[in-house]
Amino acid sequence: MKKIAHSPGVIAPPPLLYLGGLAFGYAFHWLIPWRPFNHTLVLGLVLIALGIAIALWAVGVMARAKTPVDPSRSPTHLVREGPFRWSRNPIYLSMTTASLGAALALNNGWIIVWLIPVLVTMHYGVIIREEQFLSDKFGDTYREYLRRVRRWL
């Protein structure tokens, strides 16, 4: 019988990864300004607001299910309601959406450049590890959820 880990063993807290990408994007922009977008402030602010709204919705659903939001902790329940009906990772989707919004609102192309390694790190260092952990912990119930609901959208 396979021993189940106590946590997914994610590489780093996801908000820290996204904030790191934003910080690198801002630093590069400070050193070598790159303003590829025109008239995107409103769209950027809308995307930031949408990202925040999705995150708050997902966190609220997880709180009602009494399961931890912190991916380094073991979930107590498999949440499949609210935004989790459409995305297995609505909080990561929200941080990606808000990051894109920040790039547009600040007219900073470097943020998008740095979002790429953030997403690669999220995929291999967080999401894949979480999916394996949840598959081990919740078994066929989670594997059915994997078949029904997309990773992002």
TrEMBL record:
User: Does the keyword Transferase belong to this entry?
Assistant: yes
A Pfam family it matches? PEMT
Keyword list (alphabetical) reads: Membrane, Methyltransferase, Transferase, Transmembrane, Transmembrane helix
User: Any transmembrane segments, and where?
Assistant: 16-34, 41-63, 109-128
Main localization category: membrane
Cellular component (GO) terms are: endomembrane system
Q: Which GO terms describe its biological process?
A: methylation
The protein's location, in the record's own words, is:
Endomembrane system
Question: Would the keyword Methyltransferase turn up in this protein's UniProt record?
Answer: yes
Question: Which GO terms fall under molecular function for this chain's record?
Answer: methyltransferase activity
Question: What is its membrane topology?
Answer: Multi-pass membrane protein
Q: Which Gene3D superfamilies match?
A: 1.20.120.1630
The protein's name: Isoprenylcysteine carboxylmethyltransferase family protein
Recorded source organism is Sulfobacillus harzensis
